[in-house]
Amino acid sequence: MNSSALAWVVNPALPIVLPLLAAFLLGPVTRVSAFVGRLLGPLTLAICVWLIGELWLAHGGEPFAVAIGTFAAPLGIVLYVDRIALLFAAAVPIFALLFWPWEVSGERATRESALLLILVASATGLALSGDIFNIYVFYELVAVASFGLAASNATGQAYVATIRYLLQSATGSLLALIGIAILYLKTGTLTLAHLAELAPSTLHDPLGLAAFALLLIGFGVKAEMFPVNTWVPEVYATAPARVSALLAGLVSKLAVLVVVRLLVLVFNQPEASQLLLVLGALGMISGELSAWRARDFSRMLAFSSIGQLGMVFIAFALPGEIGVLAGLAVALHHLVLKSGLFALAARWGGSMEALAGLGRRSPLAGAIYVLFALSMIGVPPLPGFWAKLVVLVALAQQGPLELAAMGAILVVTAIEANYLFRLAVVLYRKGGAAAVPASGVPAPALGAGLVAPLLCLTLLAATVAIVPVTEGLRSVARQTVDVAGYVRTVFPSAQPPLARKEWP
Amino acid sequence: MIPFSLETILYTCAIGMVVIGVFGLVLSNHLLRMVLALSVAEAGGNLLVVLAGYRGGAIAPIIGYAAPGTLMVDPVPQALVLTSIVIGVGVEALAVAILIRVYRAYGSLDLRLLVERMQGDMAKAAGIPRTTSTHAPAGERPLPPIPVGARHQPDAVGHLAPEVQS
Fold it and tell me: Which pTM value belongs to this model?
């Protein structure tokens, strides 16, 4: 790294601000020149990817905090940049580019692109923000953008699914807001670092646990957590497949990241972890059983997504570095895999019986599906096996509740294998009618057909490079659980800010 | 003499509004009522946030308004609640906008009816039979049977309802 690269440091607010600016410029620019309008969104996203890469290189993955508008924490808002934040922030524009609405045109393209850019901006903010109320605001922005995207097929069923999703999401946000109010009432601060410092003395009691439960339910709506995930199958079945891919793959992971931040920094107590573990196990069992009953591809994916996220929650509920490592492995695996499967679903609408013989007509798609299925079940050389192995080994070292969760994972894996192979058998059956595209969805463009192979290659690359990937994730996990480091980064001076009781 | 302090009464009101709102959301079947219940609950939540900065006997936090050293309420929650009110209004406006589209597509705002129709349309779009129980429910049917062909006209904006599209 030369000195000029050190001198020019990217402000971490840029990957949030640029897509937001582009989203609002998109309408006027498209009116002047349609060509520039079409180019503006992908170009902005590419710049965001580069900026985040630059952020990582300039600091070598070391954490740093930036106060917005130079108002210092705890009164101002900080952006906290560390490896886990950059990892998820980088995934946002990359996956938005992969699932960019290339195939739609005209007014609808402008609207959808603008919504997607708002989603990118706020999701990046969700990953980088170090202030709980700021996170709430970004979360609401993500929610509003995703309502628009979920309804973008403009059919009656999509509207009904969206309004049910909206009501559930708004109720969840309200509960999260009440949780934030309790946090403020008890501590007098909203900065995560300050909360981390005050939590042991103020929040480790029933009221603090209630605040965690409220926040968990609130952020759990997007993370497809157990009691608040009834919107998932409806929205994924009625929205375009690329929107489902983004919601299932990307947005759910960012909500999980928020929960993990809260759990590690603020609610580092066994009761909170147990709550997460139980809800995760219930979600996993109910999701996989429903997926087993599903009869069309997109709803099967939706239910299995609920199940997989249940396992992500179980992993993150484990204490310490191993829990974060296991959770990251499962979450990233699910991010790549589910996005790839939804990319296939763009062409594989309709009932699963209608897909008979598809594997013989398009061998590449069939092969990709089988590979994804094998990795999802956890067949040895593939990354899914290592992710599951880390979770199971970590669970086996804990108490009886964790052992029960381990048993549940093993049972659920058998169910998973059953329904995934059932479809694989159908795919390679002889004969069958031509594939039926999902109705109401424009046929995917050539670019969209490249997404699944690309993600498949990512999966294979991770299989080959499993050792460096694991080491990388381990360093991310180590940095994430370093609470003292987080506080030190946000408040570099030796004297910590005052607690509420000590106010003049 | 009132046996409660002002703070207790305010907290009771705020939490009561949230409870009323959530009950309304859970118990009502009409979409507009659900949106209204949501706004009641949000008002309660916002009140709770303002209360987080409340101090008994304090004055409004305006610099130069009172002598230095006077007890003021915490201004941070008041700044926060402005944001959350704006967010709430935005989400409710979006909800009402989608509600209008729902009404144009299906001609009803009764949630049970809408979910019934949505499930039917989803099954039809996927080309699979509805997964309903083969046993007839005991007693009265909860919903009247949906008349065939009574819906699916293109709405004013030109969007076609799903039957026409497929």
Answer: 0.88
